[in-house]
Amino acid sequence: MPTNSSIKIRSLVHLFKLLPENERIIVDVLRQIAIENLPSHCKEKISYNVPFFYGNRSICLIWPATIPRGGIKEGVLLGFWYGNRLNDVDNFLTHGTNKQIFYKIYKTPEEINERALKKILKEAVKLDLNFSNLKRR
What we know:
Blueprint: H1 12-18, H2 21-37, E1 43-47, E2 50-54, E3 58-64, E4 76-80, E5 102-106, H3 114-136
Antiparallel strand pairs: 1-2, 2-3, 3-4, 4-5
């Protein structure tokens, strides 16, 4: 993978070609869980060279370490844009230096706890629906 941050990934196929197998598997599993658990009005796009999910506002992103400027050296980061507003009673997410984006880093596919991930995605969807109500005011 080039370390040059000028790379422009335009598709998932392009992204998957650049990733080492372990990151590719983790990204694929996380994407599938997100797609299956986000409502139909939510969309996926490549933004900042990584998979990015949004509804009324940004919901989450999946950032492999191979892609420059993600802030991690290994694994795959699953970040929630409004993580600081989520009701994370299980302390599933890490509260790093960013005040808003909370995240979980996966170094192996086996670390993915689908039940916990579904729970936090449900919270993120609930929050995103509140953003819809704000638009109507």
